[in-house]
Each structure stands twice: as C-alpha cells, then as structure tokens.
Write a structure and sequence with these properties.
alpha/beta, 7-stranded parallel beta sheet, 2 domains, Rossmann fold, 6-stranded mixed beta sheet, 362 residues, 11 helices
Length: 362
C-alpha cells in the first residue's frame, strides 16, 4: 500500500473490465476515496497479468464476462500465480448464479452486481457496496505477508462452563463475506448421520441462495437445501435461509415440533435474512440446547443473537481470525465476551459432532 498526504496507508486498486465505460466509472468511484487509489486499469486478461506483475496492486476488481480468457479463468490464474483479494464486479443475472458461486469457490473475495446498464449513470448506485468491500478486502487475511502470523488463539475465550443439561439439539450458523467458500469446506465434513439439524444464514443477493444450496448439497453427505415455509427441521439436514426472507425456528402449534418460519418482517434490518433474527428464535425455542456459530463476514450481524444463546446457556463458537476471510462478525462477539470457544474453520465440524454426541451432566 502507498501512503497518502496524511501518511496513512492507501489501498492500491487495479480495475479490470472489458468496457471502457465501466473502467472509467469504477476508477472514478475509487479515486474519490482518500484511502484508495487506482494504480492501473486493464481491458483483458493478458494486460491484467502484466499490470499485476508490474504494479503489485493490493486489491483487484474484475469483470466476469470478458473476451478471450473470461473473468473466471483470469481469477483462477491470479489466485494460482499471485494471490490477492479479487472482487468480481459483473452484471450477472439470477440464471448466472452458478458462475458467481464458482468465482467465490475459486478464491474471489466477494462479488458486486452491476445490475444496471453500463450506459446509465446510475451505475454509481453500486458505489457504497464496492467501496465497503474494497476496504474489507484490503484488511483481509489475503493481504497479509507471505509468512502470516499463525500464532494460536486461545481455544476458550472463557473458562470452561458447565455444558447444557442435555445434548445440543440444533446448530445455528451465521456467515457473510467469505461464507460460501467456508461452507464448502465444512459441510462436506459431516456424515449423513449428523444427529442435529443445521440452520444457516448466509448474506447473499436474491437468486443465489437456491444455487448455493444445490451446490453444497452435491458436495455433502448431509442434505443441504434452501429452507421452505413451515417445514419440520430434522437431523442430518442443513437449511439455508432464502435471500430476502428472515428464517426463524418456531414450535408448531399442532404438536410443538420445531419448524421453520420465513418472513419479510422486520424490513428495517441491515440484512435480510438476519443472523440475529435466526439466533433470537433459536435461543427462545432451544435455550441451553442450542449451538450458535458466528463465522467470517463484515459488520456485527449475529452479535445480539449470539448473546441471546450465550445467556440461555448454549454453546457459542466463533471462527478464529486466521481462518476468516474477514474477521468482523466474530471479532464483535469476542469483544462482547459471549463466545465459549474460538476455533479455526477446520475444527468447527468436529467440535459440533463431539458436542452433539457427548451427554454431560451439569
């Protein structure tokens, strides 16, 4: 990173897009920020590779649809040869959701949908999202040196607490930036006989959660599906909250069995679905038999919900900083002192299995 006039580090960005209009529009958005600078632009993969080598940018914005080697191929080359945070900026539609998911799996830091015609000045509407994600990318683990600090974090934030009176009955997970790739790493580790259901809120735009659930289901022994209104939750199944709907757990009136409730309300939350809304409901229904897990992502969604589970005596796990793409949401929970464990991503599945099979006495 270079220094600005105040000697603060400035994020150096390379803009890659085959459209001259988009290169100019994105460059102007970035240039308006005092902590960022555009060090170069490229209209195709070959020029992008040359400029990465010559300019060594901190963050790259990359279009998915380009002539010659497309954005996905370009991304894979970057991650293999000179890995660094890459934000995909593309006008992919709902039917192209699989391509976006492939980009996230290939190592993209995040995606920003253009959504609008490149001939419209309304392209500026993506500005806030793009700038926020560039800042997060610049601070992510991908920007650390080649020899990152891998000192072990404490496995327990608090002294060992008495375990729940009964074994956990449900796992609630919350993820944001970096989440799809994290889910691809952990869900396949569960066996089909996982004795608890898993409810997942992953912040994603409309049209992508269905494809994500289908993709994860192909990789996993447990069933992974997009949640449906009113369905009973069963062990060995992971339910992904649909984009645009809050997912909660309720006790069914007819037989008190736990079921899924989907709703657009409240509409004034920062994210829909909201991790907090899921975890509030889990704390209410399952009390000390809940496991709450907060994972990679920006912001503080999930902090209040994890606090609710913690206060009910449930198990609360935070993903550690070293394995997070963005150590935001877990950091907030750690600072609040509501995590019973801090674990690297790779250890989370085994911990869930041990907790759900080990009956301990209070």
């Amino acid at each position: 990173m270079s220094l600005n006039s105040d000697d603060a580090p400035r994020t150096r960005v390379l803009v890659v897009d085959d459209s001259a209009f988009m290169r100019t529009a994105i460059s102007r958005m970035i240039a308006c920020e005092p902590d960022m600078e555009v060090v170069g632009t490229a209209g195709c993969a070959s020029i992008a590779f040359e400029k990465i080598s010559a300019l060594n940018p901190d963050v790259i914005t990359l279009d998915l649809v380009m002539p010659g080697l497309d954005g996905l191929g370009t991304l894979r080359h970057i991650m293999a040869q000179s890995p660094r945070p890459v934000i995909m900026v593309s006008s992919l539609t709902e039917k192209d959701a699989e391509t976006r998911l492939q980009a996230l799996s290939a190592g993209a830091f995040d995606c920003v949908p253009k959504q609008l015609s490149e001939n419209s000045l309304e392209i500026a509407h993506i500005r806030d999202e793009l700038i926020t994600k560039i800042r997060a990318a610049a601070q992510s683990c991908l920007t650390r040196t080649a020899a990152p600090d891998r000192r072990k974090e404490p496995r327990s934030v608090l002294p060992d607490r008495l375990a729940p009176v009964d074994v956990p009955a449900l796992v609630a997970m919350g993820l944001s930036t970096g989440g799809p790739k994290a889910l691809e790493q952990i869900l396949p580790q569960f066996r089909a006989d996982l004795p608890v259901p898993v409810l997942i809120v992953q912040h994603m735009p409309f049209g992508f959660t269905t494809s994500l659930a289908q993709r994860l289901n192909c990789f996993s022994s447990i069933t992974v599906k997009e949640a449906a209104q009113g369905e009973l939750i069963t062990p060995g199944t992971a339910y992904l909250a649909p984009a645009g709907l809050h997912m909660r757990v309720v006790s069914r009136v007819s037989d008190s069995k736990p079921a899924i409730s989907l709703s657009r309300n409240p509409e004034d939350t920062a994210h829909v679905p909201s991790i907090d809304e899921l975890m509030y409901s889990v704390a209410k229904v399952f009390q000390n038999r809940a496991i709450g897990i907060i994972m990679t992502g920006m912001g503080s969604d999930g902090a209040s919900g994890m606090t609710a589970i913690f206060r009910q005596g449930g198990i609360t796990i935070g993903q550690d900083e070293a394995s997070c793409a963005v150590y935001g949401m877990p950091r907030v929970c750690a600072q609040l002192g509501v995590l019973t464990r801090v674990l690297p991503l790779s250890d989370i599945p085994a911990h869930i299995v041990r907790a759900s099979r080990w009956r301990r006495h209070a």
